[in-house]
Specification:
Shape: globular
Radius of gyration: 28 Å
Bound molecules: alpha-D-galactopyranose
Distance between the termini: 79 Å
Helix content: 10-25%
Number of strands: 37
Structural class: alpha+beta
Length: about 725
Amino acid sequence: MKGKIIFLTCFLLISYLVKAENKQVIKISTNDIDLIYKVGDNGRLYQSYLGKKLHHPSDLAYLPQEAEAYLTHGMEDYFEPAIHVVHNDGNPSLLLKYISHTENSISPEISETVITLQDDKYPVTVKLHYIAYTKENIIKTFTEISHQEKKPIELQKYASSMLHLNHSQYFLTEFSGDWANEVNMKEQPLEFGKKILDSKLGTRANMLCSPFFQLSLDQKAEENQGEILVGTLGWTGNFRFTFEIDNKNKLRIISGINPYASEYLLKPNEVFKTPDFYFTYSLSGKGQASRNFHDWARKYQVKDGGKDRMTLLNNWEATYFDFNEEKLVKLMDDAVKLGVDMFLLDDGWFANKYPRSSDHQGLGDWEETADKLPNGIGYLTETAKKKGIKFGIWIEPEMVNPKSELYEKHKDWVIHLPNREEYYFRNQLVLDLSNPKVQDYVFNVVDNLMTKYPDIAFFKWDCNSPITNIYSPYLKDKQSHLYIDYVRGLYNVLDRIKAKYPNLPMMLCSGGGGRSDYEALKYFTEFWISDNTDPIERLFIQWGYSQIFPAKVMCAHVTTWNKNTSIKFRTDVAMMCKLGFDIKLTDMSKNDESYCEQAVKNYNRLKPVILDGDMFRLVSPYGNNHTSTMYVDKAQQNAVVFAFDIHPRYAEKTLPVRLQGLDPDKMYRIKEINLMPGANSSLPNNEKLFSGEFLMNVGLDLFTKQQLNSRIVEITAED
Ligand code: GLA
């Protein structure tokens, strides 16, 4: 009897294990992380694991089944679904079963997994795509939805990604704010129920909230410790992240287009492709997560991510709308003196019937204002060429002022409610990019300028209004497609521009950082992170964006904001990103001017370190009176440290700043640079030689007791 029981127990155990092992296991891996799915006995797909890489294949059979991977509306789960479909017969449910999956190697460092799911009663197919960038530990996911019902099905929800986490606590950092007050980092613990981060602004979509988040697991993550998931959506429009904690304290994260007012009628056999959601999972804090994104962005995502960037002088804050040829030529001379690569002509150069003398008129009429620029843009590009600098130009091609010829001729191209009074944001309205004719018009704004003036070397593409008066004359009875078709229309235009002018760098701007997503950055080499150029504010704004974006794509200009700060402080802050100036030399003393000229030279030398190196955030401006950030090149030969005293307190104790990212066994010479002409460095042990070990463990006394002081220290390895 005893033997029989033992035999039976063994038999049951073995058959359980065999069954467990036979279950389809799909593993999406990078060098450090695993995302693992399993097919359940019921044929449905479950996410079993997300976290540090698991190295022993035999363990996988024992992973728990956990939660359904891509939750559908209408079945037995009581929380927010990833997808909600209404079929031709009015049935609003979907039950997805695993059909197959493929695993392809796109390159030795990128692999793609596609999991195909299908409803068992309706001909609806959902394909989950995962692209793993192994070295950078980034996973890109998107979803494709299609069907073969007779008539269109209605998509009410259509997430790009759904992720499940099972931890003791969750801390969410959002990046919210307003115009000139972007990306304030606010951390909060998540409790039962939902927290939503979203945008309904349409065009200037990220003005109030950026499309990225950090989620620390079990405890608040620090720069160099803690498990953290960082995610962002590549969609230049309404986005939504839903964080929902269920009754078991498990967290579900649903990311995608904001389905708000955006039900989508999907025709039979048409494929609805969601935007990409990108995430990384760092086991050693926020700093590593940022560096993962920076490396990946430069290598795979951002337009010309591996190429150089131009320094520039922009006339916006130097002149606003008040300029003429003479003033512009004078500014070009300033650009030459400063030693920057380009002069960028901003808003105010166009329109004749309603000249663009303020932001109240002219937007849409893209010809030079004859009495302001009698010799046209051609004269300016010629002059720039003679002076040995490049010429760039500002446009805002998606928008129109009601006081413009374009509006008078083509009201049918404007998003507006036919039977209501118009509401204006910055005195303007948004053109209807869901309309192919409007797409042609917007493409032609760039194409006409480039055809007429092939020496234009750069565009600043602005977008100052959210979508207001929400009605598309083109979409007629499909109004709920507007937010989506607008963005697709925009990408269509940008694709055409990129195809015809592949080497044309462009800056994305949206009244500052109103557009800041990685899909847009496939077309743009950089973006204007804020209209707020007060260097103290910038320390926070740059700190915020640096969580996701590399310095290479973040434009930072020296201006006259906050005259309490010296030109040195302002320039030192801007040098942490892509440097530019928005200032007249007549606003500066001779001393300031020579300081800036030297700073540009230093910047040019340090560009490979700042723009292409690894960034380490050393001391946060949040909650501190000082802040410091450093960059180290990949060979660990050259580094540069920036340190700022914002508001030191009387008798405050300052600690040495411990550096990071250096080779402990290399010897480095430290040297303070960007000193005012004639000034001597007060940095202790300036120009002395230290081991990387010393610099990283003992540190340098970079902070001072002086208000609004700044220091830049160049660090060079010596054999
Ligand atoms: C926006 C931009 C500014 C400038 C103005 C011009 O506000 O953010 O940099 O280009 O438009 O009108």
